[in-house]
Specification:
With 100 residues, this protein is mostly helical. The protein is built from 3 helices and no strands.
């Protein structure tokens, strides 16, 4: 018996076959998962900001909880209004292009 490598076509074909790749799920993440991820990213960003520039939050030191919460909700309100206006303008522009 010899220990020569087998050069059959079966072995040659097996070496050329790419490994099977598991397809990614086409499902989108649920909204709860997205909210949790957003919260964790925001918390990590605040922690990193505090580590890098500790004097950044000294501005907020004298403000009360009600004032901070109003600023927080107001900030989200401004962002949502800007987002809705930009979406309206982009869909209006798309509608006018499709009618021409």
């Amino acid at each position: 018996m010899t220990n020569a490598p087998m050069d059959s076509s079966d072995n040659a074909d097996q070496s050329r076959v790419a490994p099977k790749v598991r397809p990614r799920s086409a499902r989108k993440s649920c909204q709860r998962c997205m909210v949790i991820r957003l919260f964790l990213i925001a918390a990590a960003c605040i922690a990193i900001l505090q580590i890098i520039a500790p004097s950044t939050f000294a501005i907020l030191q004298g403000l009360g909880p009600l004032t901070l919460s109003i600023m927080f909700v107001g900030g989200f309100g401004v962002i949502s209004v800007i987002k809705s206006v930009t979406e309206h303008l982009t869909t209006r522009a798309d509608d006018s292009e499709s009618q021409s």
